[in-house]
Amino acid sequence: MDNADLQVLTQLAKWISNDEKCWLCTVVKTWGSSPRPVGSLLVCNEAGNIAGSLSGGCVEEDLLEKLTQGTLASERPKLLVYGSTTEEVERFNLPCGGQLHVIIEPFTSNEYLPEIEGLVSRLRQRECIERVVDIETGSMTISEAARFKHLAFNGDFDHPEQTTGVVLNHTYGPRYQLMLIGAGQVSLYLADMAQKLDYQVIVCDPRQEMLDQWHVDGVRLTNEMPDDAVRQFSQDNFSAIIALTHDPRIDDMGLMEALKTRAFFVGAMGSTRTSAKRRERLLQLDLTETEINRLHAPVGLPIGSKTPAEIAIAILAQLTALRGEQTPSLEADFRTQHVA
User: Both 162 and 227 in a single domain?
Assistant: First the structure.
């Protein structure tokens, strides 16, 4: 399953390539309790079809009506504010005091199709890219960028009609990915919960009979050997890899490869005693102590979890904490890789 940005941009590229008039809408500022964060995307066409979301409700309905009926007709990007009055807050079911500031970009030709297709291609390759839009002219450029760069918009929200020198900088990046080695009960709960936290989930298990029992939608399944699967799918630093089979012949094979990658998290399920034995085995598999020290085992926060669902919660809590801590190191890693 593609992430939200990729779904929206893929649909935008399709409509542009089919010469359909369409609009890309981006949340550039929120105030108070807003229903969607800055950077949220929505695209719609003249037929009234949409992809993405700005508020999950009445804002989309009003915006779609304005666009398809021509009341927002413009050949250039335009800033629209929802929730500037008490009446609008009530009408659009915005939380108390909530506002949404949205840039609307019209696409009436295929002039920028190469740029949009470039965005889609880079996102599918789990790479980062920045899009810069001149609001006065509607011109667009794309270039390499680090993921953790917040959307920037220098427009005057009190005077949205002033567009001279106004620029939108929006960075798109890969979705966090979680590879689970083993298609057991913990993996079922973990995969289901992780997708709700916007992880792209891959489950690897060479035992086809285990994959045949899988029943969580939206997960990519592979019966490749774990080391091959890690090499193919989970080499970047937006990936987490967790071994969950309890079978050293499967888990160790995946961990041996995972600990050599740039994955931000590598973990393995098991008791403290089992984890100590695993580290001893890994030392015999041509791994350094530094690489082995990257292993989180026993995986998960120590919250007294016993059931598969509780273990999944403990693991996701640990992932959430460590994912937040890794942001500065990812930016530094990007700069190191891309310095000429």
Answer: no
Place of tokens 């003249």: 46
User: Do residues 11 and 25 lie in contact, with contact meaning Cβ atoms separated by under 8 Å?
Assistant: no
Tokens of 171: 């960075």
Q: The tokens 């369409």 sit on which residue?
A: 22
**Counted domains in the chain:** 2
- The residue type of 51 is A
Mean pLDDT by 10 residues, the chain (340 residues): 81 96 91 66 92 77 83 83 59 54 93 94 85 94 77 86 91 86 96 89 94 90 94 86 94 95 94 94 90 95 94 96 64 39
**221 and 203 Cβ atoms separated by less than 8 Å:** yes
**The domain boundary residue, chosen from 127, 150, 172:** 172
pTM value?
Answer: 0.62
User: How many C-beta atoms lie closer than 10 Å to residue 340's C-beta?
Assistant: 2
Question: 265 CB contacts (<8 Å, ≥6 apart)?
Answer: 240, 241, 242, 296, 318, 319, 322, 323
